[in-house]
Design goal:
By secondary structure, this protein is of the alpha/beta class. The chain has 2 domains: 239 residues, Aspartate Aminotransferase, domain 2 (3-Layer(aba) Sandwich), CATH 3.40.640.10; 122 residues, Aspartate Aminotransferase, domain 1 (Alpha-Beta Complex), CATH 3.90.1150.10. Helices cover 39% and strands 15% of the residues. It is built from 12 helices and 14 strands. The chain has a 7-stranded mixed β-sheet, sandwiched between helices. The chain has a 3-stranded antiparallel β-sheet with strand order 7-6-12, with no helix packed on it. A two-stranded antiparallel sheet has the order 10-11. Helix 3 crosses helix 4 and helix 9 runs parallel beside helix 12. The chain is globular and about 70 Å long. It starts with 7 loop residues before the first helix and ends with a helix.
Length: 370
Amino acid sequence: MAVPILDLKAQHATIRDEVVAAMMRVVDDQAFILGDPVGQLECKVAGLSQVRFAVGCANGTDAILLALRALGVGPGDEVIAPPFTFFATAGAIHNVGARPVFVDIDPRTYNVDPAAVAAAITPRTRAVIAVDLFGQMAPIERVTAAAGGLPVIEDAAQSIGASRTIGGRTVMAGEAAAIGTFSFFPSKNLGGYGDGGMAVTQDEALYEALVKLRTHGSRRTYYHELVGYNSRLDALQAAVLGAKLPHLAGWSAARRANAAAYDAAFADLPELATPFVDPANTSIYNQYTLRTPRRDALKAHLAARGIGTAVYYPLPLHLQPCFAYLGYQAGACPESERAAGEVLSIPVFPELTVAQRDEVIDAVRAFFTS
């Protein structure tokens, strides 16, 4: 039985009529740029994230870029970020003219180590980016404390709808940072039918800056207060996302159920580490990521059985060729480097059938017990 790492067709089949109807309303209205679908989605995402403001933009990368610009980050500044994440986190720092400063991760959660953040701050540090990797929130309250008053951006591209208990209160992904950023790339838990992104904040001044920056630095057509970008969320994508959003909680619950089944099935395999979820967190399992020193052999074994896998991420950002100018060498972020050689994500998507899940379990167990 072939089991893909993700099956978007299976999801689409369950919601096709809702999504097509939402898209056709936009087509019939012939209003494709911003407008009601975008505004409505912004309100819904703001409500989910327990924030005052949300600003749709073209993609998740731009959401980080706009957040940095809204915070005044630019040439000569430093921004602290983890290297074990998707390229967009650091690429956005570079593209506003700032210097990425990479700090290591917690080897259990793969999220940034707050102590490493505190140790990396210099007079040039202007902001910190905390990434919520694989669907669970970074310890945002500890990162904020480590930042010592510097603004924190929460890169929540993989964690929309995830939560963390802080001081007895449930805090949603994107809520507690100066600005939270989301991606609606098709493979995300809430994915569009193309690119899309959003930034959320509690701060009205930052909201105003984000709104201007996404539309050429303008609030009034043809009057530009600053030089911004053309980074508007497409109305068709907003319509798709608005139709899908009511299903997000159910999809996340199904991912957690699949994860729990895997946890139980692999608990007796000493060579295999299953995902560690911080007890304060409720994960949405954007990925279910195993860890083993025999990663490459396991990946080949699963491929031979027709089971899709993915390595997120095989080369940490501090060792990417494009960042050679920063001067990092192997060993600079040892936990990130070790993780890059050992992690392997397996299918966890909500439409995964019990038979498919059992096939994955049997294949993984066969590798370690045969």
